[in-house]
Design brief:
Number of helices: 5
Shape: globular
Helix content: 40-55%
Radius of gyration: 15 Å
Largest sheet: 5 strands, parallel
Strand order of the largest sheet: 3-2-1-4-5
Number of strands: 5
Length: 141
Amino acid sequence: MFKKILVPVDGSETSWRALNNALEIGRKFNSEIVVVNVIQPYNNAVPLDHSTISRGNSELERIGDKVLEYAKNIVGDYPHEVSYDMEVGHPSERIIALAKKVQADAIVIGSRGLSGIAEFFLGSVSSKVSQYAAVPVLIVK
């Protein structure tokens, strides 16, 4: 049923809860876990010089590496296959594309807790993923 579970992590408490939930589900179904961190690079929306943008993007990659290292500590001695990936781009788009690419059976994602007018105008990554993903999505609060 859940042979492969994709778990996006961003360093938030809800993403760590999502990872723990995915590990628990994975233990019951002998699932492979795919942990992903998506970094959204700076772009040219703000007039910055190229070296400033490059430094900012390098810092984002460094933080992404640390997030994945922390995820490895949480995963610990999980008895089934686990892989780690870093994607670059818009988070909901990259998560949906990666789920398709790795043929995930489910996505377990943390809720960022946007509420009210902010979520109405911006939408959250978790709500976009749940709306457009072709597989079941569990949103963990």
